Amino acid sequence: MAQQGILIVISGPSGTGKGTICRELLRSNPRLKYSISATTRKPRTGEVDGVNYIFVARDQFQAMIHNNELLEWAEVYGNYYGTPRQYVLEQLQNGYDVVLEIDTQGAMKVKETFPEGVFIYIIPPSLDELADRIYKRGTDSLESIKTRLNCASVELAQAQNYHYVVVNDQVAAAVQKVEIIITAEKFRAERNTDLIQNLYRTRCS
Amino acid sequence: MAQQGILIVISGPSGTGKGTICRELLRSNPRLKYSISATTRKPRTGEVDGVNYIFVARDQFQAMIHNNELLEWAEVYGNYYGTPRQYVLEQLQNGYDVVLEIDTQGAMKVKETFPEGVFIYIIPPSLDELADRIYKRGTDSLESIKTRLNCASVELAQAQNYHYVVVNDQVAAAVQKVEIIITAEKFRAERNTDLIQNLYRTRCS
User: Fold this and answer.
1) Phi then psi for B121, rounded to 5 degrees?
2) pLDDT tens digits for chain A (205 residues)?
């Protein structure tokens, strides 16, 4: 029997590079599945529907909430974001690990349903560095950058509710750390109760 | 400030190869420190005092118990085994990881004092394999092998009290798994509270 997949939840303050880490992680681990969020926010330049996000209208999103089709959802900066439930459950049951990149609010909701998930918080080397990254990305106004940095300070307090904290100083190194965490989690005793019970059985048969 | 070292506790049924794994682990990771147990049992062929064990007389051991110099101790098959406390504490404070190879009884006592330790349980691929290994080691009588196998069945129930379970099918692979677990544990949120607090400070200063 294949071991059930692991739900890997990745969060971090906006601009901390968690998107890049997830992309690289998925690129170098083809067996990992990415849970695509649904959102009502407008696509940024280069973002593709069904790849980066499932872009939906507000009334569509509200129907998904109503029909309990979302594992978690939240309204952030006036937009809805949510995780379609069925895709995640199917992949896990088939033994695939699923990566979920969501904000802390969503992550904590998922943690209530999936305490056995692996919750990883990505942090920048410093908050100055974070401001610099958001500024260079060039997609936010100065006012928005200030809001994001204030939110970052609030969000950092959430780090203690995650299982792991990874500093994103170099993308490749951060990706490797996440890979090591996932590998180690495969050996957690609570994920291997079958293994131990099978060992008993060999003795008794 | 250096991160406090991690106490790594390794257990497993007798004959499961945990000794070999610890030896290989220490050989390839010179920064790891090995906590040498004190015991009243007689040295096996090739075992060196102060290297494999600290071999002491029964009255010496009882004095160590009386003076609270042991992190844990137990009487197994009529012999005392125990872990000298001071060495472990010093190494951890100096930022070194310490490997402790002890039986489940001792491990669970250590877990009461050090819940933040990493508890790894090594299991054989099967119990038949385990019987074979003990037999080939040639240090145990048939009666002793039977006792050890019965104890192994009881011990396996303890696996659920450990954080990780590693199957020792190939020594090199098992060692690598333990290394991955130790590396991943360095990223645990509860071991990195300083890191997060320092990030706050850069924002407020």
Assistant:
1) -110, 120
2) 568 999 999 999 888 889 999 999 999 998 999 999 899 999 999 999 998 899 999 999 999 999 999 999 988 889 999 999 999 999 999 999 999 998 888 899 999 989 999 999 999 887 777 777 777 877 778 787 777 777 777 777 788 899 999 999 999 999 999 999 999 999 999 999 888 777 766 544 3
Domains of chain A by start residue, with CATH: 7-204 (3.40.50.300)
Whether the Cβ atoms of residue B165 and residue B121 lie closer than 8 Å to each other? yes
Put simply, whether A126 touches B (Cβ < 8 Å) is yes
B193 touches chain A (CB under 8 A): yes
Do B16 and B123 form a contact (C-beta atoms < 8 A)?
Answer: yes
- Tell me if B72 sits within 8 A of B88, measured CB to CB: no
Q: Are B106 and B135 in contact (CB under 8 A)?
A: no
Q: Give the ipTM.
A: 0.84
Torsional sign, CA A59, A60, A63, A64? negative
DSSP label at residue A31: T
Q: Is B195 touching A (CB cutoff 8 A)?
A: yes
The residue of B180, B185, B191 whose CB has the most chain A CBs within 10 angstroms, and thus the best one to mutate to test that interface, is: B180
Determine contact: A59 vs chain B, CB below 8 A. Answer: no
**Neighbour order of strands in the sheet with B79-84:** B54-55, B38-39, B79-84, B70-76
Q: What is the number of other CB atoms lying within 10 angstroms of the CB of residue B75?
A: 12
- Rg of chain A's alpha carbons, rounded to an integer? 18
Q: Which residues of A touch B199 (CB under 8 A)?
A: 123-124, 126-127, 156
